[in-house]
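Notes to self after the call with IL:
- keep both proteins in one doc
- input above output, always
- annotate only the second one for now

Protein 1:
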Amino acid sequence: MARVLIVDDSPSQLLQLQRIVEGLGHQVLTATDGALGVEVARKEKPDLVLMDVVMPNLNGFQATRQITKDPATAHIPVVLVTTKDQETDKVWGARQGAKAYLTKPVDEADLARTVKQFLGG
C-alpha cells in the first residue's frame, strides 16, 4: 500500500480525491494549504503528492517547486490537480517539477490511471 499526500484547501475536493485514492487501496495523508503540504511531504515522505494550485499561504506551484527542488523530497512525484486549465499553467507546472497535470472536475478514471502510472498496480 502506497502513501499519497493530497494537498487541497477545499474540503469537498479533498474528500472526493481521498475517496478515489483509498478506493485504489492506498493510504491518504492530507494538507489544507501549500505550506502545510510541503511540511507533511518533508516529514512523511509520501510515495505521491496530488497538489491543488489555488490555495492560501503557498500556492501549489510554489509548493511543488519546494518539494521537487529539495533533495530530501525530490524523488516524490507531484501531480497537479487544479481548475487552472490554460496551456501556460500546464507548462508552468512542469517547470516547477510536476510530473503530470489533471484538471478539475477530475475524471475518476483519469485520476486512477495517473495514480497507477506513478505507483504501479
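Protein 2 (the one to annotate):
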Amino acid sequence: MAVTVTKDTKIGDLLMIDRRVAVLLMQAGMHCVGCPSSAGETLEEASMVHGMDAEKLVAAINDFLSKEQ
C-alpha cells in the first residue's frame, strides 16, 4: 500500500512511516528533526518556520516514498 504524505502530516508520523525521510528533511534545512517538539508539528508548520515551500517538500517526500515501495 502506497503512503501519501500531505502538508498536514505530522513530522513524528512521517518518521514512523520511514525514518530515512529524516535525511531529506535535514538536507532541506530542517535540522531540528530530532527535537521532541518537532514531532508534533505538521510539515506545513515546520516549513513556515524554516522559510520553505511546503508543497515542494511534500512532493519530494512523496517522490522518495514512491521509489522506496
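Annotation: The chain has four helices and no strands. The CA atoms of residues 3 and 28 lie 21 Å apart.
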